[in-house]
Amino acid sequence: MSETTPPPPEEPTPQTSRIGVDSWVAESEARRARTPAALVGHGWQRTPDAIKLLAFVGVAASYPFWAANQGDLFIFGIGTLLYAALGMGLNVVVGFAGLLDLGYVAFYGIGAYTYAELSSPQYNLHWPAEATIPIAMAVAALVSLFLGYTSRRLLGDYLAIVTLFFGQAFTFFLNPANPKVAGKGLTGGADGLPNVDPIDLFGYKFTSIRQLYFLLLVVVALLAIAIHFANQSRVGRAWRALREDPLAAEVMSIPVNRLKILAFAFGAAVAALCGTIHVSISTAATPGDFDVSVLIIFYAIVILGGIGSVSGALVGAVIINCSLQFLEPQNDHPSVKRWLFYGTIVLLILSIKPVIRPVLVLAATIGFGFAVHAIVAATAGSAWTTGVPGASAFNPQASGGAVWINHWAIVPAVSHGNFNNCLYIGLVAAIIATGMLSGWWRLAALVPTLYLAVLAWENLLAQNGAITAYLLFGAMLVGLMARRPEGLFGSARVEIV
Amino acid sequence: MAVAAPKPLLELKGLSMSFGGLQVIDNLDLVVNEREIVSVIGPNGAGKTTLFNLVTGIYQPDAGEILLGGESLLGLPPHTITNRGVARTFQTLRLFLNMSVIENVMASQYGRTKVDIVRAMLRTPGWRREEREIRARAEEKLSFFGQRLVGYRWSQPAYSLSYANRRRLEIARAMATEPKILLLDEPAAGMNPVETHEITELIGQLRAVGGYTILVIEHDMHVVEGISDRVVALDHGVKIAEGTFEQVATDPKVVEAYLGTKAAATK
Predict the structure, then answer these.
(1) What is the reported pLDDT for A272?
(2) Helices A310-327 & A334-350 angle (0-180, nearest 10)
């Protein structure tokens, strides 16, 4: 070191640290923290958890006063809050304790059916909710103790197989099995248990959508606080420790098997609580509400929000439920649907780096579209280009306010034989071809692929929202996982080998 | 300090363990007295880490007895053995990497604390008191390493620590279980000469200040020489020598185990 070099400062600044210096890893985060996204993330991290929850509850509490109608309050409000509670419960099992529990939806069902047995004309029992809800939670927790005890030595894939089997066995128990108890089918088979009583707490009946919404909001807020507090306690630390390294946790005085079963039971009780509320709202317990497709939504919420993050589960529930509901064909939101689709596509493309490339691809796609449209308009009949984009069997006139699409994408006015099917097969082929190319060739191939995706969307997918929802989910999750493997609010996991 | 007649803390009697046909520990007798530092040396594959796994209950021995303060540890699950007063570190660091530095040391106090999840969710005064104690104890254990771990923000994740500091954190985490005996598995592995010197002094302090009895596996003979009251040499699961460092280091059997017969013959 030369004479002129100033003495190193006491606190090494990021500029002076080198690879190999102790705090390098920590400082690398500080160095990265200059991008706008990182600044937002940093601000979010420094916001106290109480304020985050207050903000969520505040916005949620105001929703009944600006929701368009009772139907919206039902599908967006109640649906989201129910998913939020379920997501938080699943997060305890999967996020904190790191147990891949694919039987979670069965506990949701056990809660719902237990409530329905005790408060419906099925056996003519009409117990009050202050009794049936704790009973339902206890039943689910007991069943989970059984499942947890038998599979306590399993982790990862093996646990997933056992719990998935359990979930399937439960749906089998509900529908074809339907054992006879006291002269009646216990679960009501495919019809389920109809005419379930509304929740009746200490003589107060929750019947209107608004009452149920606020009940759910209180449940969600209390659950968020309880789970956050549990996570900050010795049990929460033990859960996270066993997620990190079960053997080390065991040797560090943590009874790993007991804590795994506790996490299972905790998640099961939360799921059962949600099940009781769900069944009291829908007034019927039906087997279809508790199958694997529902489980996928729970997992999508937890993964999107960030595994192990309570606020992530809340935000994940909002995103997943709302996009799911917008895509439901009977919910008439063609323009929102279109925004969701194009937004997802643009976000996916923008994840390509450097940023000039996605911009070029998007510009080229727009140009390509106009060119193709002009050629078709000039050479083929006008029936090929004058359809109504976004029209569906439910709403043939719905254009979603986007007639401009007609000048860019090809939307035939009448169905042309196999045009839609060819589009779809062409899109799949184009995606495969794009995946096989690399470099600039891949970017070039992206242009027609995107345009095909747009055509497939406008002509085929938008009309089949229920199915498209899952495609869009997949695209959203793939895009997010590529950019942020830890989810929106999760913290990055580091493995040192 | 005048020490009374040595009182055995950890006693292994006729301990045997095999994996299939491979005898890893063969009829081993070993006594560690209270406030003693005993080093276990031996070539790779001698069965040193297996010995630790047996004492901490990760493996069950085929034969023999393990006593801690006169009470048998056989058949107990590892977390119970830790609660009885045995703590260890791992040769291949096994920290809870994605938890913060202080949470690592707080998590290992699970067995020493009582407040259940219901009281934690309600944040009762009992939870508050215990949580304060847990944090204070964790800070105390981390402070043991002087400037080395103090310089860090304890809220920073464990993966951001350097290799040497991860070793120190493992020791702090083991100390937080409030053990009677500490089993250190190669505490100086991967450390530079300065750090190795520090760890030698630290192990001495662990006994002098912390009052722990220490059983240590170590390959670095400078460390072994610097810390050990007694050295035990293992080879193929058999105790081949025991005594002071000088006695063991010059024992022909030990030299043979490390260097082969020819070297022993020419010595």
Answers:
(1) 96
(2) 130
B173 at interface of A, judged by CB pairs closer than 8 A: yes
A4 burial class (0-12, 13-18, 19+ CB within 10 angstroms)? exposed
- Interface ipTM: 0.91
Same domain, A294 and A382: no
Size of interface A-B (CB pairs under 8 A): 125
A233 & A346 share domain: no
Domain borders along chain B are 8-85+179-266
pLDDT digits (tens, 9 = 90+) for B150-175: 656 788 888 888 888 899 999 999 99
In chain B, the N- to C-terminal Cα span, in Å, equals: 40
Cα angle: A360, vertex A375, A427; to 5 degrees: 60
Domain with A461, as residue range(s), is: 338-483
For helices A79-90 and A256-282, angle between their N-to-C axes, nearest 10 degrees: 170
Checking if the pLDDT of A212 tops 50, the result is yes
Number of domains in chain A: 2
Domain B8-85+179-266 architecture: 3-Layer(aba) Sandwich (3.40)
Cβ contacts (< 8 Å) between B110 and chain A: which residues?
234, 237-238, 241, 252-255
The rounded distance, in Å, linking the Cα atoms of A76 and A124 is: 33
- Looking up residue A314, the CATH number of its domain turns out to be 1.10.3470
Q: Which amino acid is it at A235?
A: V
